[in-house]
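Record type: monomer structure entry
Structure origin: computed from sequence
Chain ID: A
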Amino acid sequence: MKIDILSLFPEMFEGVLNSSILRKAQEKNAVQYRVTDFREFTENKHKKVDDYPYGGGAGMVLTPQPIFDAVESLKGDTNAPRIVLMCPQGEPLTQGKAEQLSKEEHLILVCGHYEGYDERIREHLATDEISIGDYVLTGGELAAMVVVDSVTRLLPGVLGNAESPERDSFSSGLLEHPHYTRPADFRGLKVPDVLLSGDHAKIQKWREEKSLNRTIERRPDLLSEEVRLMQENKENQ
């Protein structure tokens, strides 16, 4: 996969893309990152990429020309890359969305700044708009880092255990079950007996029940109405 990032502050990505799993993904040739300063594409002699909004109002708006030209230069021979605007008005990032994007050959992430984008960028260039939460950041760089991380770890061969992403919270629609490791007894706090039993069927059943219960307690909004009714009936029996 190729992931291009358009940003006015490319230096922000140096540490993130060259650390941990994101660095290992590059070393395994699972992904290629490229960060481009779209200010270099502006035709404005003062290197401006923003201007006052028509109709008045506070703040500055990113002009379409630099971003259109930068995206067109990055497309290359790739067939229809996904062009993603990082934007608080966008679709909330979910595990399902990350899985969808991980199947693409080429992503271009655009990091906004100032008051927002000229609407023509949304309507005639972007294929997706993504938000990482109901709050506003100074720019789209931190959001882009989150998207890159959530997508890259799903690429084949990136994680050591192929089952790891499948068992993550949200991948199954539920939160992940509790985990324990050595020692089995830490200051009198003991690991559940079932996990030490060696009975894989019982362990799997325990994990499924804990996953469902944790989701009910912490994120009931993730459960379908059918699952909620099944759980209520089970508790009432």
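Annotation 1: Residues 172-236 form a domain with the Trp Operon Repressor; Chain A fold (CATH 1.10.1270.20).
Annotation 2: Residues 200-218 form the longest helix (19 residues).
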